[in-house]
Amino acid sequence: MSDKNKAGADVPLLDLKAQFAAVEKEVRAAIDRIVESQQFILGPEVKALEDELAAYAGAAHGIGVSSGTDALLASLMVLGIGPEDEVVTTPYSFFASAGGIARLGARPVFVDIEPNTYNIDANLIETAVTPRTKAILPVHLFGQCADMTAILEIAVKHRLPVIEDAAQAIGAEHQYRRAGGMGIMGCFSFFPSKNLGAFGDGGMVVTSDDGLAEKLQILRVQGAKPKYHHSMIGGNFRLDAIQAAILRAKLGHLDEWTAKRQENARLYDEKFAAADLAPELLTTPTQRPGRHIFNQYVVRTRERNTLMAHLNDVGVGCAIYYPAPLHLQACFANLGYREGQFPNAETAAREILAIPIYPELTEAQIDTVVDRIVRFLNTR
Ligand SMILES: *Cc1c(COP(=O)(O)O)cnc(C)c1O
């Protein structure tokens, strides 16, 4: 046992070294395999990961790309989205969810989120659909699926494609269907802090549409097929073989890691409930039916800023995802959104805090985190 497993010691927000220790042999063997082959970009290792991940998400094809950001961008590009077009999405996510839309000259059209799950409020989507709407882009935030039943119903009614931002939701389920496999395309990220993390950047688009899969494969190599003959304007969106090999080694552990995250979430829920704090002092995550994979465990408190400062002082890792909603970002000022327009997203940005949830966390560490939070909030 290392020091940090003793109650009273620091608890980091994420401990990637603990995870590496558990898979070091397999991962080093995977890296060695690529070093021996000297085949570094795309190739059989990437293809094998694509097949495994597509199957994991319940889709027919996987297209390995350079990042989650590029997975989103490429998905929007193959749908031909550009100037004059609109895409309906959430104002409460990582920047890339809306960034790809705007980079193509299209307009991200935001609707507010649900106050308790922080996912897009499906009831508001239809009010935002116009003749210019070309897609709906929900995000499965923190590891829990958005209400895909309602979203897909609206999509069918208006004949709109749905691109799922499943960067935080690998293996999450809504009515027994997996994140990324429900829309026309699903986007994953292998950024190291995601539940399946690479040793650098990486991403994947999954789809069951054969035509879109082929276009994505062409788009990621500059739009060329055959090489040097360009039917479309693509980019360098390729995935490295070394990342694919590492990810394949880790994919076999993903369900066991997810189960540990779920168990940690259950322990937090139980221990915070026992502390019986007023809801404005502490609210734990709302879980809908389905499989929540807890990329983050996020609590809500009106004392967020003071609590965060306190946890920093006493050695408990925590972070704000996200301190400013997308409709109020300076780069989107031209879209004309105002403060007050999406109150649920704005309140979430002021009140939420992510605390440690990674699989290797021990119960003693969870007790430390709960104890430090509860003691502090009881003084407020
Ligand atoms: C991480 C993330 C992305 C971007 O993924 P990168 O691999 O970092 O480019 C996009 N959307 C969401 C919701 C994310 O959490």
Write a structural description.
The chain is of the alpha/beta class and 380 residues long. It starts with 15 loop residues before the first helix and ends with a helix. It has a 4-stranded mixed sheet, sandwiched between helices. Helix 2 (44-57) crosses helix 8 (241-251), helix 9 runs parallel beside helix 12 (363-377) and helix 10 (304-314) packs across helix 12. The chain contains 12 helices and 11 strands. The longest helix has 22 residues, at 16-37. The chain folds into 2 domains: 3-15 and 254-377, Aspartate Aminotransferase, domain 1; 20-251, Type I PLP-dependent aspartate aminotransferase-like (Major domain) (Aspartate Aminotransferase, domain 2, 3-Layer(aba) Sandwich), CATH 3.40.640. It has helices at residues 16-37, 44-57, 68-78, 96-103, 122-128, 148-158, 210-219, 241-251, 254-275, 304-314, 343-351, 363-377, and strands at 61-65, 86-89, 107-110, 133-137, 163-165, 173-174, 177-178, 185-189, 203-207, 297-300, 352-355. Residues 1-7 have low confidence and may be disordered.
Please outline what is shown here.
This protein is an alpha/beta fold and 380 residues long. It has twelve helices and eleven strands.
Features:
380 residues, alpha/beta, Aspartate Aminotransferase, domain 2, 4-stranded mixed β-sheet, 40% helix, binds pyridoxal-5'-phosphate
Summarize the helices and strands and which ones pair or pack.
Elements: H1 16-37, H2 44-57, E1 61-65, H3 68-78, E2 86-89, H4 96-103, E3 107-110, H5 122-128, E4 133-137, H6 148-158, E5 163-165, E6 173-174, E7 177-178, E8 185-189, E9 203-207, H7 210-219, H8 241-251, H9 254-275, E10 297-300, H10 304-314, H11 343-351, E11 352-355, H12 363-377
Parallel strand pairs: 2-3, 2-4, 5-8
Antiparallel strand pairs: 1-9, 6-7, 8-9, 10-11
Helix pairs in contact: 1-8, 2-8, 3-4, 3-7, 5-6, 9-12, 10-12
Residues 67-69, 93-94, 96-97, 139, 165, 167-168, 189, 191, 201, 203 line the site of pyridoxal-5'-phosphate.
